[in-house]
């Protein structure tokens, strides 16, 4: 058998995949046979294992050699051990029973006179620690920490100690003292050691929850005494005062800086009370790092980014948070796309907490909408909708329109997202002028109509229908039809179905409005319907619109031949294979033949369509259906279901929903509360806050001594898209309110902004969200009230 | 904090040149990740950023000549930009060790490449040494013992 080098050469020289496979399979089989021989020399064995490692990289099966790596480790020769340990790390993992064979060998090697053997053994222990190995071998690691002066070994022993604790948290008592002992030993100007110590402290903090003995407070006390020292080290390194050998492109050891910040952050997250005495030190150091770290290279920005993550990991002062956002703002403005990506991501996380501060950087956020990278564009768009408020609405939406005009086929997802969001914003912002909204919608249809779903087109039609300004309506309709009729312009492509539907609908509804214009003739309109029909005969949606339009147009024109042509369109579908179309065609055919007076009366213009009506009326019927006792019963059941699932999660007994004011239900017109909520959706702290009221049909989903949460599922026609609104009623004054919501992985959620982050007792905040995807609605909600976390799960009963 | 899940080196043709798992994935997951992540990364255009989301974690990659260095990282704890620095540090260290490292060096001396990686990253993908010269000193010292041992064997 040839050498490893020749084997690699042979594999590489093979011309076809089949040839390569043949060589690989043959060699693998040969090694397998040879390794079965118990008497092969260690030289041979080493060679086989090396080849096997190459096969491992190629993705071949290598499990049969696992015992052999242990045999190699047992050898007294260093080269054997080196390959043996490498093979063990690659081929074994901590779930294998073979590890028991390794225990003795590791025990020997951890006490080996050669530092390199000890170091290799620690590599393997770090990679393969099982709880059993941790308990059997911790003494050896402790021994190294006690007696060794070798920085290589101490550094690795610290990392191993961190890993051992993760496998058996009871060990944290043994290793905790070394954190202080080593970190205070100033003689060691070695970053590897400081990083190792940090790993140890991190592991202790993370696994302290699983530690079962009652001396934990003492252990943590001793560790938190290190905080000032670590803050000082961070500032020291950040100022470039430490060992210059660690310089990375103008940034002194970013790896160490990030580790230090992680440890400091873990203290804040796991033991916030211990960090209280050092609050000002934290503040100073984080301010220092965020202010003085340059943005000149990736290594520097990684440190800045970590500082911001640390700032937002706890309830920092407002000024520090604003500083954090300003740092992110600078990062968004950088050229490097990775920096843009991470900073946009981070801004998305914090936009609900500090919308005003994020607002200030909108210039650079908008610029990212046009980034060549789709993942950056996506985040920039999400962020743009996140900072939308009545004052910047027009400016930001015009940016989005520019994006839509330039958008291409592969931006489909983003286009749909924008259209959805825009229509949602428009529905909620009732006080913006209608004409402008309509113009925006028409522009969207024109540039990206081919990607927009039919439901969204319906929304556009409703807007045209409802607009109160008649002149503007005429103008818009005339423009729409004009673009559709023009043959020369390729502006509107044939595949722009949305445009097709809208234009056909406009002709049916408003032919009388535009026929006075010289641009349009009865013939051209009729021909257009005819053409649309023949072009899209297979598309039942377009055909139904054409049928309706043909019927309506027939009452608005006088030319006999054209009316006859319209009748033919309808007639041609009376034998359509689609039953719905067929029924329509037959019915319309009957109406078509009615005398003009009857026909005109039947086909009067559409009334103002109140989109909110289904919502309120649905809400009404539901709350009527579930009159008080019934509602209570339903809730009881839900609660039981929840208890079954999650064991004894101490859920409070649901309180009866707020009293149902009868007059509100009796009079569907009084949708005042609803409108108020609508105005509130984009409110900013500067706006006078309208009090939000909890709709009567909401269900109490959670209650604590600070807040009571009500939820409401809005019924929509499809199961795939549901809207939920949560109302948070404060029982006490709430200075800071944060809400995080998670949904099952099979679903996707879209969040509106939280209406208010500050509540006085009795006030209500509102959070809306849309859920896409099938299945029942299960929410996991985490509330952060005055920096106290409160988490609960809730499942909404499926009532559709 | 660095908590790398795996470090993968892939050629432009999608061939794995080095793979090191730091989290115990099962065989099925491993082959899925190798296949999908590599394909995903290779299909990206040069103007795109070097970070992408994959399943429940993030993938950070960087192309050096014909070789893609790919690291799977935790969604929450890892710092994406720092991961790029870790990758870069690994490349620089190999560059100094091999002297203008190229793909062939790594193919033929994969065990040395592993050796360098193992001196930089340990346990659950956490970085333990940030200095290039320190890493190289240790690896070269081990190389020297190895060749001495060989020499001894020949002489005896």
From TrEMBL, chain A:
It holds the Pfam family Adaptin_N. Gene3D superfamilies: Leucine-rich Repeat Variant (1.25.10.10). Residues 691-797 form the Clathrin adaptor alpha/beta/gamma-adaptin appendage Ig-like subdomain domain. InterPro entries: Adaptor_Complx_Large_Subunit (IPR050840), AP1_complex_gsu (IPR017107), ARM-like (IPR011989), ARM-type_fold (IPR016024), Clathrin/coatomer_adapt-like_N (IPR002553), Clathrin_a/b/g-adaptin_app_Ig (IPR008152), Clathrin_app_Ig-like_sf (IPR013041). Its main location: membrane. It is found in: Cytoplasmic vesicle membrane; Golgi apparatus. Keywords: Cytoplasmic vesicle, Golgi apparatus, Membrane, Protein transport, Transport. The keyword rRNA processing does not apply. One of its GO terms (cellular component) is AP-1 adaptor complex. GO terms for biological process: intracellular protein transport; vesicle-mediated transport. Belongs to the adaptor complexes large subunit family. This is AP-1 complex subunit gamma. The lineage of its organism: Eukaryota, Fungi, Dikarya, Ascomycota, Saccharomycotina.
UniProtKB/TrEMBL annotation, chain B:
Pfam families: Clat_adaptor_s (PF01217). Residues 3-144 form the AP complex mu/sigma subunit domain. GO terms for biological process: cytosolic transport; intracellular protein transport. PROSITE patterns: CLAT_ADAPTOR_S. It comes from the Eukaryota. GO terms for cellular component: AP-1 adaptor complex; cytosol. GO terms for molecular function: clathrin adaptor activity. InterPro entries: AP1_sigma, AP_complex_ssu, AP_mu_sigma_su, Clathrin_sm-chain_CS, Longin-like_dom_sf. The keyword Signal does not apply. It is found in: Cytoplasmic vesicle, Clathrin-coated vesicle membrane; Golgi apparatus. Keywords: Cytoplasmic vesicle, Golgi apparatus, Membrane, Protein transport, Transport. Belongs to the adaptor complexes small subunit family. This is AP complex subunit sigma. The lineage of its organism: Eukaryota, Fungi, Dikarya, Ascomycota, Saccharomycotina.
